[in-house]
Amino acid sequence: MSTFKDIHPPEVATELGAYHPINQVKDYLVNLLKDLNFNELTGPEIESEEYNFDMLNIKKSHPARQMHDTFYLQDKSSVLRTHTSPVQIRGMLQSNPPLAFVSPGKVYRKDDDSTHLPMFHQVEGIYVDKGVNFAQLKDLIHSIIYSIFGKNIEIRFRPSYFPFTEPSAEVDILSDDGKWLEILGCGIVNPIVLENCNIDSNIYSGLAFGLGVERIAMLKFGVNDIRDFYKSNLDFLSQFK
Amino acid sequence: MKIPYSQLLKFIPSAPSMNEISEKLFQLGHEHEINDGIFDMEFTPNRGDCLSLDGLLRDLMVFYDINQNNPIYTKQIDKFEFDFLNEENNACPYISFLKINIDNNIKEYSGALKEYFDDLNIKKNNFFTDISNFILYETGQPTHCYDANKIDSPLKLKFIEGDHIFETLLDKEITLTDKNLAFVSNNEVVNLAGIMGGKSSACSNDTRSVLIECAFFNPEDIIGKALKYALTSDAAHKYERGVDPLCHEKVLRRFIKIIEEHTNILSINICQFKYKNFEKVKFKSDFKKANDILGIKISKEEYQDYISRLGFHFEDDYIVCPSYRSDIKNMNDIAEEIARVVGYNNIRSEPLTIPLISSTLGSSISFENKLKDTLIGNGFYEVINNPFGKGIDLSIKVDNPLDSNREYLRTDLKNSLLNNLLYNERRQKLSVKLFEFSDIYWLSEGNIQKKRSLGIICSGIVGKNYLDFSRKIDSNYLYRLLDDFLPKNDNKVTTISRENIQTKKQDEIVYLEIEINQLLNNESLEKIKHKEKNIIFKKYIPISEFPFSSRDLSFSIDDPSKYYDLQKFVLGFKNKLLKEVFVFDFYKDEKNEVIKLGFRFIFQSSLSTVTEDQVNEVMNKIISHCLAIDSVNIPGLKNLKY
After folding, report:
1. Are B578 and B601 in contact (CB under 8 A)?
2. B372 touches A: beta carbon within 8 Å
3. How many distinct structural domains can be found in chain B?
4. Residues of A in contact with B349 (CB under 8 A)
5. ipTM rounded to 2 decimals
6. How far, in Å, CA of B498 to CA of B495, rounded?
7. Statement to judge: residues B119 and B207 lie in one domain
8. How many domains does chain A have?
9. The domain containing residue A205 runs over which residues?
10. Of A14, A20, A61, which has the smallest distance from its Cβ to B382's Cβ?
11. B198: domain range?
12. How far A145 CA lies from chain B's nearest CA (Å)?
């Protein structure tokens, strides 16, 4: 039986905060790819058109380069990067194959509605070596998606178009309600891009892929409105401890 | 682009089902929806060649035998001298003009023209414009029809600069600004090249003499203009994605044929301008490389068959690309063609192990994570804000902002974090502790500079427990918390005045913003070991937008043995309206051997604002259970309404 002297104060529960859920998912994806031997590489959010477009074989006539899609800065002297691919260009220019980079970070596109935000996050990966092919890319993509969504998930590849990869594919998973959901884009690095980075495309080939962090966070956490991630609402953020 | 299934079937004798065609289209990479027997196609930007009935059939030819033999006008066409001056040969290397006079008797639409309007339920305009629209749908080549009696020669094609008023054939008046490629007659813009014609020279139902223009424009000189002037233009959509530079004669002969099916043609004349020779794209065919790129093993015969069916042909060891496939440049492109035919999902995966590659290129992410761990361990939440806002002198300007409130990139994190804090205070939060890591950009002597910053903002009570409940966050709180990280004697922690903020709160707002590099040399950080968090993907529960209601209860406990019973019950009490409960007060009265224990109860509903009665009902349950515990009292209870 307790006596007065035995009484201990109530436990002082330390109230923990939380990493932002988008950064949690971003770090999760990066770690997953690090485990597959990708090295993490980051780069600037303000980029030149050369790195953001030209080096990636995105021609001046490509819709992505238009003012309605890309934020231009300081009288068109720079852009807010529209993807993290320029980080890979910087990585390829600074090192020789074989190389494997994963580049996470914020990217910007001129959208602002219920399903698109002007700022969002990508995790992109590239692997350049001798003899890299599309069948191997499929194996890697399966590994990534199975790690995220479990081995029972059904996956399909669709032809797509990205100027920096050729062939290019988009990958869908089958949701519980029978709908195909687009998860990532990928492809074999366009030899033009390799040559732009002084890599001999007759010797080396590469694979590349890009994941939308918000997309995966929405699916995994069951968040329906992408804007919820950026309201900084403590009731929302506290659910991701 | 909408293409009826019935129209595809006219050209595919084997009559595949709609589902089968749908599957083949997906395999080829052509996304679509099917509504009422119409394929609503969405093509990738590199496949402008597919933006027509003929184009889609060309791609399906790899799977089906297709009879693509639309009748064309086959007689010789006399040339005529047309006073046309092309000042921009690079922007328009190929252009043709066809002049046709017809009699007054235009019959009801028939044949392919009628089916086009009927199947797609499209509103008719006038005879020539309707045929032009049909030709665009069928062949993918835009044509523009001028009423020949409304055009004065010479007609010039040139880039015009500066402001020009232009009234489109759809009666919309726009002001052309900057540089635009345009057809000009008598110093008047009569046609915004590749986008839309002008009203002054437009055809009408009375037009009997027509000048039909059929051109190839460089996509870079067209792109973005339709959007800029808010014009809906199928022609621009096609020109932006590239059209076939060698199709003019065939397209114009098809145009004549359609006219001929509907009225008597009195005269036909053609005038063609070609400013450069078309260079066929060809490169060495490398069957092995196609297999290597894909990781498959198809035979050379299969390879040649697939490529040939897609319209390519072989000259010696070279692949020659059809003029409409401007997207094909090398063997990787050919490999993609093969993959589309084989089916991406039919290519078997090949195990891949990426070797461990050492890299000297690194990042400072792990360092940031150590800082984050410390903050999160003390109740701080990480936020992410977008970088747009109002500017100051050093701000980087966005040339094309979303709106006037987001014209610049922020030069610090303060305003974003302050807005985050006030937002949460309005949501009745007792304590708000937030931080953000972000790159910050600004101008210095015209050059863009970058730094990586950490911003921290906090206000309210230190914590929701009996030790911290009555303590308010102040500068010292943040200094104590970050003592190990902050440079010594550096007064970075500040307070933000509430004077100009619309808030009734009085709590001090404490703010710190520091460049990450200023913390890098701090030895104490080396001692902190960041452990990667194992993410738990718990399903998110939508948050309530209805306000909280809170109640406090203070208990007096005479029998120490009942102290734990009371705590256990209250902290373990569950109710769908009770969102949170915590101990905000604890006191041991040594003299009288009495324990005082205070709880705060917070109520919220996801369906509506909680009412006084709803709260009281729950509180009464709690109180009656607590008072049933021996020696537990609620001082002053008589005065309460529970």
Report:
1. yes
2. yes
3. 5
4. 135-136, 138-139, 142
5. 0.95
6. 9
7. yes
8. 1
9. 4-240
10. A20
11. 78-274
12. 14
